[in-house]
Amino acid sequence: xxxxxxxxxxxxxxxxxxxxxxxxxxxxxxxxxxxxxxxxxxxxxxxxxxxxxxxxxxxxxxxxxxxxxxxxxxxxxxxxxxxxxxxxxxxxxxxxxxxxxxxxxxxxxxxxxxxxxxxxxxxxxxxxxxxxxxxxxxxxxxxxxxxxxxxxxxxxxxxxxxxxxxxxxxxxxxxxxxxxxxxxxxxxxxxxxxxxxxxxxxxxxxxxxxxxxxxxxxxxxxxxxxxxxxxxxxxxxxxxxxxxxxxxxxxxxxxxxxxxxxxxxxxxxxxxxxxxxxxxxxxxxxxxxxxxxxxxxxxxxxxxxxxxxxxxxxxxxxxxxxxxxxxxxxxxxxxxxxxxxxxxxxxxxxxxxxxxxxxxxxxxxxxxxxxxxxxxxxxxxxx
Length: 383
Prior knowledge:
This protein is an alpha+beta fold. The chain has helices at residues 8-26, 54-59, 99-102, 136-143, 180-187, 192-197, 203-214, 216-221, 224-240, 249-271, 298-307, 309-318, 324-346, 353-365, 371-376; strands spanning 2-4, 37-42, 75-80, 85-94, 119-132, 147-148, 154-155, 169-170, 280-283, 286-289. A 5-stranded mixed sheet has the order 1-3-4-5-2. Strand 3 (75-80) and strand 4 (85-94) form a beta hairpin. The radius of gyration is 22 Å and the shape is globular.
């Protein structure tokens, strides 16, 4: 679903509550099930009739469950003030006024406690991720990845089709944002709302990278987490490059995570249409389905892509030219070399400016085409 927010302060009010609850959970003060906030679909005072597609919105909750208690899919709520874009993890939708049960509880922002606020329905949000910060052009590009079911499945546009909000949308690329294993690898188990809170102020760096290094198309193809890691690394490097005594290890760690995020995403998408029998590979002494497992680290990715003959041959058919040879032959060596540097950096071994500068230039693209730029240009063969 997609719903424009009323302003950044509205989203931030929900974020603050979730961030506080997530911190308390990490400190073992509350259970993880208690980390949630309610988002209400506020009814316009100018609309007297019920929301026309309310039942369709409510029916989405039924798609959450598979057999038994297995979660069948990830239900997402996209929120935007047109300058920034967020995605929230929805686990419940109800037409009942949750304020009657929650009362003055900590799960409802103060906004909804005003007397004249009425809501068509409520969404229970367990986590919120910031996809884009302070960049309207990137928001517009990101929204085109969503298809509006009420507008002939056309890509979402802020310039048309804005009728009967929230929009019910589909996502052809099947992107998931709240996988527990991925979160565990990238955020050390913290909720995304906490992770984003520690990485503020990178919006200008993201815009500069999009406009002057990667280009519009390549930047938009990167996983949102990869963009955050690249921008965080670049900002940290720029802020401290004049300080020869500064420990630049976090720059390498963030660049390494960007490679991991994007490569895992491409690997899973590329192998999705490959027969399961051709996807299995030995990882750390165990047989694993490379198309479903992971997320994998740098050395594991290098092994899967470069050393497994069956998978390498399958990838040659699934990675579109002209990046086929680079992804299947050159990338494994890049990942392996980066892993040798990232290992010590992650274990409190300080890296000096000159060593990190060389890697940063090579990956982001200073005086050359960056390896991360090349990675962003990798496409999967359609069909």
